[in-house]
Amino acid sequence: MKKNIIYITTPNQALAELQAMVKNYTDSTGERISLVDELIKSRRLEASHE
User: Does residue 45 lie within any of the structural domains?
Assistant: First the structure.
């Protein structure tokens, strides 16, 4: 049986942890990608279909 654990963190700690997780994000080919660039590309594509 697993122990029930509650983690308490500050917003700044949570943000730093998230930034560390996505800093080296890679796509399915293993190439590093910028999540911001991917979001912008996706939004522009959606806008072009309107």
Answer: yes
